[in-house]
């Protein structure tokens, strides 16, 4: 990679580098390529692997797993779910031509270690440890494999040399007690989010804490021994930008890769210049932190659902089993809410369309299977779909949603006698139909606009019967990032049944832009 690329990163980058929900990031460099993993909670496939050549522009190239487990929580059965659970805060490492990724799941009560020799196209071998090693970070060091984890007291535990199990009699102790206290005694969130790195013979542990009444704060500790005495400092206390590690470029520049809570759009990645002073990686806060860029990030895309009609570039179609139908695959920007049911969606039954069939009866969109999602992004964005509805049954709902615990959607509501366009606001406790309009059409267009500027955080809903004349319906959704879902708002294409489970709809396309309707 050329030197001027890094100069451009250092001087011209506007933060956030991705104005979308990409939290708990872990970034490594392999040669002149960077890879990043992130938290995906209840979405599948899970733990995206993103690739970049400049630390700024990222694309999804693989996922670590298709589905993690098949329990009631992942299947939305018996009133259970894994919203806000699923997989948390992964750790990505590369050693001796093997990629390692550790991630924990509170719903499964396990910690997983995945391995592959091909991070972009390969399958991942999975091992599991009983229990959750909270916010763990891997370190492979001179024949030893360590995992740093915990909250408040930061601990180390040693794994076997093949990183598949806890090493009997291995290192297991607290290495940084009461790690939050270097930020003061007024502790709100105890230190967590560990990232450990060995650099020039020194062990560095990066953490976050959240003092009461203040913002998330990045901490750093160092020691000359993995279980030695650690000294600590505040690395960055600026607008809540925190949690992550550091990475070097081919030319020797260093950057911290952190994230910031950014309202309803989610938690957004920031790149922070780092300079070494007296053996400390000093995080510089002289960076542009208000992005004015208006562009669609490469982790989002439109889709005409015409995979059955034309050959796609191999880089566009990865071999992700859960996202394929008879060899036809959805782009990697798509993820299902919880585990999908492959029997009830198809790209091949009607070429040129995504068919979503109802395989069961659901109470609301929150417990429906086969909800297909993409991230939203700032400062504003809009998604549009065309839905063909002639095979809907009494009690079915199908349309486009602004998806989080507090959701809104515009959809077709089918009844025994007629169909309606309906705008709905709801949450995990209740759902309210704000407006209904009777229709006779079999093809309906829906659009949802998202405005994240200055954390306005409002979504607006529209319908059309001819794709030219658009009509506002219902009322805006005041979006709110909630901990029960722990995820930024998403576009969601859905079809679910409330009475009988044999209906289906066909989505002709999903089109996303960075332009919303003028109010």
TrEMBL record:
Q: Where is the active site?
A: 24 (proton acceptor), 192 (proton donor)
* GO BP terms: carbohydrate metabolic process
Recall the GO molecular function terms of this protein's record: hydrolase activity, hydrolyzing O-glycosyl compounds
Could you list this entry's UniProt keywords, alphabetically sorted. Glycosidase, Hydrolase
The organism's superkingdom is given as Bacteria
What region holds the Beta-xylosidase C-terminal Concanavalin A-like domain?
Answer: 329-512
State if Hydrolase is listed as a keyword.
yes
Look up keyword Hydrolase and say if it applies. yes
Protein family membership: Belongs to the glycosyl hydrolase 43 family.
Q: Give the protein name, as stated in the record.
A: Glycoside hydrolase 43 family protein
This protein's species is Lederbergia citrisecunda
Q: Could you read off the lineage of the organism from its UniProt record?
A: Bacteria, Bacillati, Bacillota, Bacilli, Bacillales
